[in-house]
Structure formats: structure tokens, C-alpha cells
Amino acid sequence: MVTTTIRHVVIVGGGSAGWLTAAVLASSFKAAEQGGVRVSLIESPDVPTIGVGEGTWPTMRDTLRSAGLSETDFFRECDAAFKQGSRFNRWVTGAPDDYYFHPFVLPQGYGDADLAGRWLEHHRSVPFADLTSYQPHLCVHGRAPKQASTPEFAAVANYGYHLDAGKFGLFLKRHCVEKLGVHYVPDHVTGIRSKDNGDIAALHTKAQGDLAGDLFVDCTGMQSLLLGKHYGIPFLSQRGILFNDSALAVQVPYAREDDAIASQTSSTAQAAGWIWDIGLPTRRGIGHVYSSAHMDDQQADTALRAYIRATGGPEDIPAPRKLAFQPGYREKFWHRNCVAIGLSAGFIEPLEASALALVELSAAMLADEMPVTRAQMDTCAARFNATFTYRWERVIDFLKLHYVLSCRDGGEDPAGYWRDNRRAGTIPDRLQDLLALWRHRPPSRYDFDRIQEVFPAASYQYILYGMGYQSESGLARRQRVGEDNGELADGFFRQAADLTRKMLPALPDNRALIAHIVRHGLHRHDR
Predict the structure, then answer these.
(1) Is the pLDDT of residue 50 over 60?
(2) What is the rounded distance in angstroms from the CA atom of residue 326 to the CA atom of residue 329?
(3) Cβ neighbours for 130, distance < 8 A, ≥ 6 positions apart
(4) φ and ψ at residue 441, rounded to 5 degrees
(5) Confidence band of 46 (pLDDT split at 50, 70, 90)
(6) Is residue 511 classed as helix, strand or coil in its secondary structure?
(7) What are residue 401's phi and psi, to 5 degrees?
(8) Is residue 510 left, alpha or beta, with left meaning phi > 0 and alpha meaning psi from -120 to 50?
(9) Is the Cβ–Cβ distance between 184 and 18 less than 8 Å?
């Protein structure tokens, strides 16, 4: 029996998912060098990009650095800005002063003291994130997460990015083709040729004939050309858990060129969904995500325009772009010699910006687990499928948590959307079990014990206590014998306050630092 060595990876589809995957694989396997694994990317030249704005996690810094990219060039070419977390407005009660933060920085002293218990019993008048972390205060005061002297990709406060998704794809494409040796094929896939064993042998293209490969990566978006259409891998709808299936997206100019750039994604709850607001240097990317079962397009458009006017935007905006999606994911993501990454693998909704993070995680695991020959591929596929089924389930749990804990009702819930989200039949069993446990103790590392959890226990604490989850009294007294956890926790709260006082005057204005990076650049470690 002849064993095929994996020498050529073919990625189908560009955009952020395709080119990010290409960058990870090509930089990992020396595609530009003789003897490296060849990486090709075929992309239809006619597919438009949206480019309304997108958020990343802090992991993107290491992904870009590892691929050999410059952070200075990234800011210059992708209309990029800093993201230090998310601010949730009107999610709990719907009141104008109802807000909380999910920052990227861990709580001060996290893992060393019972911060949540102490907060619940003695400090509930102060929002949990505001007490345990300095980062919400940086966001409120418009501070950047680093200084002009901080090297590329290094941080004073942990950060990810806001970016123009269309420009980001082009930025990655240039780097992949010019620096990493990715073979670019601008063509249409018109057919798929299979081997006798069911593997994909080649893709038939409109202009260039067959493109053969050993492993094929499906980055064709929601059409899922290879995994979904060719192989028929079922799509598992999550519509019964998370209801949002529509969005209206638009680009909005700043009123003045020197308007502040928010360094957090703002998420403002609405009658049947929520509105994202992402600040880029040249504009804001704003969109209304909603459930079509609870709100029609005209109602969503009216709410979006009202939000834009209320937050300083213009009266007249262009017609928003309508996006429709089915929340869910594929039954498996790697079948035979085909792996789906990005929207072809699944999509839930934009809340907490998990889409690009899952692309990063998928590309990284594919690079780490890349089989040497076809003989090992099925074993690698089984491990990949188990890992990403777990990750998609955890994303769904975490997103659902935001809706389950909302107390919006009456006039703040005219369509019954928030009430429906709280119905027990819509809450995954694992999340129900965890919520029962968290009545008596805070989320901990024992609840999320994977080395690479999508969301750590600290993130659950930020959401749980940001939304006022009621725990049993006496939670803070559940402590190790011999430790004064109360005083220890108070000491960490004071540390967070001290860091806030030191950082606010030491860190520059967010827009000012971005402008400095564009004009003068950041120092690179390799120089």
C-alpha cells in the first residue's frame, strides 16, 4: 500500500479565515523554502468583503507576531485600533445606568484569594470588574493599553484589536504571497474530483483546470463548499438555544476627526437583540444583531438608527447591509482529507467576538497536529473534531449565560425575547448544572480544566457578577483553613486601585497613540 506524504495543502476561500489560516500554515511549515510544505490558496476574484469592523482576542497579537507580521504595518493598513474588552450596556435591567465590563485583564489576585466571595459579602456597591481590575477604568477614560515606547505586540494592559475585516484580509494576503511563499490562485472552483477512497483528489477550476492537493481546507464561508456541500456533513442548528439569526451592519463617520476612539467593544441590549459599536480610527462599525422571530427588519432598522443618533452619529446614514445566518456548527470539522475553518465550520453570533478566535485556534491546532502522511490523518481528525466540538459547546454556554442572567422584562422586553431566553428548555444542561454550582461557589479552574479553554473561569466571573447573579450568603466563608481570605482579597482590591491611579496618568490617549503608531511606528524586538 502506497502511503501519501502530506506535501501540499490547498485552502479554498480567502477573507480573514482563509488568509489567516494560510499565514499560520505557511509560516509553520516553511512554505517559501525548498522542502517545505506547499500552501496554495484559491479564491474567487468576485467575492465582496463586508469590512464593517471586527474584534479580536489578545491571542491575535501572538498569531500575527508568529507569522512574521509587523504590528506597525497592521495598524497602518487595517484601520486598526486597540480593544481592551467589552462593555455591556442595559443587559441586566435595561436602565440607562445599567452597564458592566468584561475586560481582558484577569482580576488582580485571581486564583490567590476568594475575590468573588469577598465582593459578594462586602463590596457589592462597586461593580465587580471595577473593583478587581484596573482595565475598565482605562476604557472609561479613553486610555490606550500601552505606551509609545512599548515594543510591538508587548502590552502594559492586555489587549486585542478592532479592525476592518476587508483590509485585514488584503493585508494578510500580501504578506502570505510576498513573504511566506503562498501560491495564490484567483479562480472559481467549478467541481471536485474524488479519489476511489472518497478523499478529495483535486479541485476543478474555471480557468486553470485541476488543482491537486493532499489536504484541503474549506474556508468558503457559510456555503461550506467542501465539508457541507461535497461531503454532506450535517449542520447542527443552535437556534433553540441562541435565537439571533439576523444583523444590520453599517459604517458611521465620527462627528469630528478628533473624536475619542473607544478601546472596548460596546454591546447595548435592545428589545430583541443587541447593537455592537466598534471604534476604528476613521469611523465606527455599528450593527444590530436580532432574532427574526421576535423583531422584523424594519423594527431593527428603526432601533439601529435611533441608537446611532443617540450616540452622536448623523441623522442620515446609508442603508444598512442585511446579514442572515443560521446559528450552529458542523457535526464534525475534519472529514477524510478536508478541514473546515471559519464560517464553513460554523457561526453562532458576534457576541464576545469568538469567530476570529476560533479561526486562530483551528489553524494553530491544524499546524500542531498536521499529519506527516495520509495514514495518520484519521487519528488527527478524530482529535481535532473532539476538541472543536468541546470548544463550540463552550462558546454556546458562555454566550447563553449573558441572556440567561438578564432581568429585562415588561417595557424592556416587549416581544418576550429576553423571557424566552430564560426558559429552562433553551438552556444547555451543562450550563444549568454550572449555574446550580455557582449558587454556592464562584466559577473556578475546576469547572474549565482544558489547557486551552475558549473562555476561562475569570471570564465567567466577570459576566456572572457583572450581571448581578445571586449566590447564597456566606459564600466568602468557604475558604481554606488557616487563611484570612477576606483580608487577602481586600489587599488585592487595593492593588487594583493603586494600579488604576498609576496607569491613568502614565498611559496615552487611545487616539493619540494610534496616530503616533501610524506616523512613527513601534519598536520591534528583532531590530
Answers:
(1) no
(2) 9
(3) 101, 136, 137
(4) -160, 155
(5) confident
(6) helix
(7) -55, -40
(8) alpha
(9) no
Q: What mean pLDDT, rounded, does the chain reach?
A: 94
pLDDT, residue 452, reads 87
Task: Identify which of 252, 278, 287, 392 has the alpha carbon closest to the alpha carbon of residue 333.
Answer: 392
* pLDDT (tens digit per residue) in 208-218: 999 999 999 99
Mean pLDDT of 121-148: 97
* Cα-based angle 399, 341, 2 (whole degrees, multiple of 5): 145
For 50, the grid coordinates are 463586508
CA-derived radius of gyration, the chain: 24
Determine the angle formed by the axes of helices 15-28 and 165-178, rounding to 10 degrees. 30
Residue 456 is predicted with a pLDDT of: 95
Contact 10, 40 (CB under 8 A): yes
State the Cα–Cα distance between residues 122 and 158, nearest whole angstrom: 28
- The pLDDT assigned to 32 comes to 79
Smallest CA-to-CA distance from 220 within 210, 207, 208, 231 is with 231
CA distances from 429 to 332, 374, 393, 394, 432 (A): 21, 38, 11, 12, 5
Q: What is the pLDDT of residues 439-468, one digit of tens each?
A: 999 999 999 989 889 999 999 999 999 999
Residues 6+ apart with CB under 8 A from 254: 282, 283, 284
C-alpha to C-alpha distances, 465 to 49, 408, 421, nearest whole angstrom: 38, 16, 19
Residue 46 near residue 89, CB atoms below 8 Å: no
The three-state secondary structure class of 382 is helix
Query: CB–CB of 117/442 below 8 Å?
Result: yes
Rounded to whole angstroms, how far apart are CA atoms 134 and 200?
A: 52
Spatial contact of 392 and 355, defined as CB atoms under 8 Å apart: no
Instruction: Beginning with the edge strand found earlier in the chain, give each strand of the sheet holding 273-279 in spatial order.
Output: 99-103, 85-89, 265-270, 273-279, 284-290, 246-252, 321-324
Q: Give the pLDDT confidence score for residue 281 in this predicted structure.
A: 97
Burial class (CB in 10 A: 0-12, 13-18, 19+), 240: exposed
Strand 8-12 to 38-43 pairing: parallel
Which cell numbers in the block locate residue 233? 456533513
